[in-house]
Design brief:
This protein has about 325 residues and is mostly helical. α3 packs parallel to α5. The protein is globular and about 60 Å long.
Amino acid sequence: RAGTAWARNRLGWTAIKQGQFAGAEEMLGSALSYFRETDHRRGLIWTLNDLGFLLRRQGDYPEAQRQHRESLRISEMIDFRDGIAWSLYELADAQRDAGLYAAAQESLERSLAIYRALGSLDAALCLYRLGYLLILQGQTAQAGPYLEESLAAYRHVGSQDGLAITTCYQGELALAQGDGSTAVRHLQRSLALFKSLSEDGNPWGLLRVLDSLSRTYLVLGRLEAACAPLLELGDRARQLSSLPSLMNSLIGLAFVLARQGQNGQALDLLAVPLHHPATRYESRQRAQGLLQALEAKLPAGATHKQLPAGQIQESWEFFDLQLQLLARKSQETIE
């Protein structure tokens, strides 16, 4: 039965990567039940972290933190250092998405210290995440060395995936420092690296770079260039059932509409990410910034689909309609 539980765990992970969340929940839930019944602690650790990862893809950041904290508690109970480090790394992502930057930084620093002591390449994961956290907090000078060390580690082992995601964050750093042309260069390279990976590579990293690239083009005022990555972001987000990434595409499209003088439609679109629980903290800040720039308030009751984060499929009809309309408008603008 233990072998079956591990198989269900892996099937659950595969389902997550395919955006089949209902199947993932079923498989991971079945594995978790067995591991709880038999007090299989390592099985619990990995399955709880996988469940937390799934919850983050659905935008349920409080529950994701709870799963990662339980995994961390069990890991510490049996002094499983690799489990402690991985639980802290995953917990940091959920904390960052919820806007708990100081807590996320502390979790990552603890994880990094353990991975360094273990001599694990996973230290590079913590390094680029720490770099990005510092960027989000405006500490760009401190962020650079973390990203450079992560890049060096991935170059040493020839990890295309690692190079792709760290190069993406180099683009974020350049943008934060006001160097738009360098940001575009890094992000285009990151996008090319991600697209050179196999289909079972890092689909969430690709979502990240599409969001970063479209946002950079918008900052530079290149609306036409921003449309293609924005629409691809929305398309891939739907394929992966990733509500947080879909929120990012809606925010980006609202920026496009606002730049085109279509403030009413921009506000209508902003109502979704501003009210939806799946919107990441950093994304919500961008949406609120646009709302302030428009010197407007959302219409009373303009909440659209205020669904619990897990009810993904019920949101798609509204999002699909908005993205289809905006795709047509964007094409008309380009032509």
